[in-house]
Design a protein that fits this description.
The chain is mainly beta and about 800 residues long. The protein is about 5% helix and about 60% strand. The strands form 8 sheets. The chain has a 22-stranded antiparallel β-barrel. A 5-stranded mixed sheet has the order 4-3-6-7-10, with no helix packed on it. A 5-stranded mixed sheet has the order 11-16-17-14-15. Strand 26 and strand 27 form a beta hairpin. The longest helix is centred in the N-terminal third of the chain and has 13 residues. It starts with a helix and ends with a strand.
Length: about 800
Amino acid sequence: MKSKFVLTTTLLFLITTIGIAQTATLKGVILNKNNQPVEKVSVKTENGGTETNANGFYSITIPSNQDISVEFTHLSLKKVVSVFNLKNGEEYEFNPVMSASVEQIAPVVINSNRRKEVEGVVTLNPETIRKIPGASAGVENLLLTLPGVSNNNELSTQYSVRGGNFDENLVYVNGIEVYRPFLIRSGQQEGLSFVNTDLVQNVDFSAGGFQAKYGDKLSSVLDITYKNPYQFEVNADLSLLGGSLSVENISKDSKFTGIVGGRYRDNSLLVNARETETNFNPTFADLQGFFTYRFSNKFHLSFLGNASINTYNYEPFTRQTNFGTLTDPIALLIFYEGQEKDRYQTLFGAFKGSYFANDDLNLHLVASTYHTREEEYYDIFAQYRLGEVNANIGDENFGEVEFSQGIGSQLTHGRNDLDALITNIEHKGDFKIEENRIEWSVKYTNENIRDRLVEWEVIDSAGFSIRPPSFPPNEQPYQPFAGPLEPFQNVRAKNNTQINRIQAYGQWSKRSTLGNSNVWYNFGLRMHNWSVKGDGIKSSNSTVVTPRGQFAIKPDWKKDMLFRAAAGLYYQPPFYRELRDSSGVVQPNVKAQKSFHVVLGNDYSFEMWNRPFKLTSEIFYKNLWDVNPYTLENVRIRYRAKNNATAYAYGLDLRLNGEFVPGTESWFSFGYLKTEENIDNRGFISRPTDQRLKFAALFQDYVPNMPNLKVYLNLVYNTGLPGGSPSYADPYEYQNRLPDYKRADLGLQYVLVDANKQFSRGWKKPFKALSFGFEIYNMFDAQNSITNTWVRDVSNKRQIAIPNYLTPRVFNVRTTMKF
């Protein structure tokens, strides 16, 4: 397998390439002082020009990676001149307001490359997100190519960052926090992430050391901005896995804009290719919309809405998993009866009012509601054989199970229901004083969660019912057990919980100089108060305060370098999942998990082969206390609901990105991580997310002499995670690691129509963009596993870890179009 990866990487670098123009796109809406669109504004550069339409919209292509002067002129309005320096392929929005004054604004250089770098934020191109292949294509798929971000499950949109778990990541859409379902147990149940890539305009990501304004989580921030449309446009994406359709438009007076997107997904293509033979019908669908009405140039009101429904019907029949070694092969054969039916229905709505008092003061008021109803019902009876496999090559029975060394059965039952209503109201402000910027917020949250958990598991081996691990052992089966039969696992709980939160932050930022060097400062303070109450729950109340700071300096050197440092306290007050222990009971006195986080970073921008490149390096250290230990089964997290552990994490992240092929951005990532925890002072062991080494590459290319045939390659290699322990077990007894995770996804796309290739007649005339593609997921058919099935052999009281393999090689066809 390793040789295949090396060969593929070598071939990529040996592909002969031809140069293409390196360009960026500048677009926007030009308004007058009365917030009315201005038609027929001339937009000129040295290489060409355009003019605004009736809605004041313009779009112009300019050379990238160099200073380009753009002039905006109108017969009755003041001329505006600005200088831009944009990345190759970047789309930058510039919305000047033109007045009747005869004075000309002094030229301002706008260089987008440094806008987020000083904050330690990575900005991703939405067009790249929409093109890169993956079993769960989307924003999260692209995040997994970044250093420090990991997930060894291609069916899941969850991710861990620098040793944290899935619950430690913040996700915002247009400044509004969004949530994920509660009861999801496996990646194949997830379906769609909240973020609809067709609606995305900007993606910012921070892997740690983020500012106080971003909330109380331990690991990362994903900050998504949805589009404000400038013209009518329709986008469609169709494949064997489903499709998406989005429509965007703007009113004639430019006051109202709206974009609506619908998605449908069916994971049967992926799941039916796995080793378990099933009758499987998973369907996931959602509808999202983002609308803005500009009452005046000072007041805007927007609405973000989402409705989704995921259904998961699963009826397994048989499964055979071969494992062991070449000299001692073993197979697990399972025959199933029963089925599982899950349903997840969510509704989300948010209003945001923005008041722009002047150029220096912005005020916002946000109100949002998230409602989810989730059902998880299953009764599955499994009869299994654990046997020796015929390894004699050439034998007519080669590969068949000839001798069973253990037989048994297992019956699992679940009736889980959850109904959660989360309501937020928040005021935010932003005030600029010369080079100083002050930001603040006050937020109130009410979480009303009602759930019922009924789960039990009965295990039998050769006619003997295996008792729970908490029961005292005896000489079963040689000595009969006369007590009552008990399920091996039995979770029964009913909770009605209310959590009220008050959060606030204030932060100050400043751009300045230190000698001949440019510097940037940021310091902030967060406060979080929460109270827990409910039926049969003793009320509790807690408050935490966390300071955070950032500093960046760009020395006046010939080499283009930027140095960053960030440090602070990052506390995570418990969400509902963290309050519920492994038996399903809410523990209201769970404390906030706490960490001290330090990040040191460097950005080195340079030219190679006369093209721009950048090397980003970061080292980080986290010291954690009051840690809430958990077990991880696929994507299901079960907390102990005890702050009885300490932990640490440290590592190094490297990313080299640039135009390895002219006109396209690619990157290579490397990450080293070590994270361990000490539970009840028993000594340090690896945490469930201890992903030691990570290599990833995102490569974009085109075929020589056929530049319309694009190639996209997504490579990920992660060393194995700890094998995990069953939710009832002692993690100190389960520290074996899973095999390394290796995956390569390949996409081929033939472009018929794009921005540089338009048609004035024929069947291609209606299209602004049109392409057809072919994708191969898990190109080398690597056998990756995410968890183990633990098979118990009563005769020698041992448990055998049977790997649960993920998806094999899968083929997909895809077409995208824009009208």
